[in-house]
Amino acid sequence: MICALQNLRLLALMDVTWDDLALPESPTRQGLPPYLEKLELYLSPIGHICTWIAAHSDDLEHLATVNMCSAFWDDIDSIAIAWMLRRLGPKVKHLSLPWHLPQGMYVYASVNTAFIPLLRALNVPFLTVDLSHHTELRTLRISHLWLKSEPDNPAEECFTAVGIEKTLLQLNSYHIRSIDFRVLTLFQMTGSDLGLDWDKMWKILSRKCFAQLQGVTFGLSAYDKRLRVMLRKIWGGRQMESYNSRRHSRRSGRRLTRLQVDEVLHSSISQDDSVF
Questions:
Q1: Which of 203, 206, 270 is nearest to 235 (CA)?
Q2: Which residues pair with 40 in a beta bridge?
Q3: DSSP codes joined into one string, 159-226
Q4: pLDDT for 98-109, tens place per residue?
Q5: Quick one: CA dihedral 107, 111, 113, 118, positive or negative?
Q6: DSSP 3-state assignment of 46?
Q7: What is the pLDDT of residues 136-186, one digit of tens each?
Q8: Cα 232 from Cα 213, distance rounded (Å)
Q9: Minimal CB count within 10 Å: which of 148, 181, 188, 196?
Q10: pTM, to two decimals
């Protein structure tokens, strides 16, 4: 049905379920709507639809906005979301994701066995969300942010301030203008509850890819004010540097891999990010 609507501009799926999660084979497959500009997925499970979109991502010539959220995603959903986002890559200019995506699931043993044949047939790699592939990203929104002061195990490191730092280090777009972390008001987080290392934040936001960044927000007034002041001190009027300068910097650099992100967080971060 979706493929039949070739002039579709917006596709929003909410609370949709399927009895059969297998992907049908058709000898005369019609492509996804080529003019689709905005994709919104608010459903669980989501893995099968993300895998399907990833397999036909070349059809989406005009897609610019991807919004996703659910409270019930599992490991297989996370893997499929990561694969879809990697395939969409630089097409995505505006991205919204929830904070609680599972991390570090790379082995078949951790996945619902019902999905293994599908993933193998489609050659879907086992990976986690990596924002460095979105090299044309303008805005990023991370919703449902909640943090712990200390992780109970290594897998929960993403629920600490380190998770915020890793997210920022993954970004590799020289067009990024807005980063919005939405803290869950349920937790009444104030003061130093986020536990950010401000020296690290200064060094991270000094990377050249953030020269166009106009704001980083958490929805907490004290944090938002401090980050506004920090960005103004780092970049000042340089946020309007020429496109040619940004393009030159981008060509001379390289994106951080996930392993390099981990390494950077345990060492000093150069204010000149030409090594990246």
A1: 206
A2: 12, 67
A3: GSHHHHHHHHHH---TT--EEEEEE-GGG---TTTT---HHHHHHHHTSGGGTT--EEE-S-HHHHHH
A4: 886 544 333 333
A5: negative
A6: coil
A7: 999 999 988 777 667 777 666 677 788 888 889 999 999 999 999 987 755
A8: 10
A9: 188
A10: 0.75
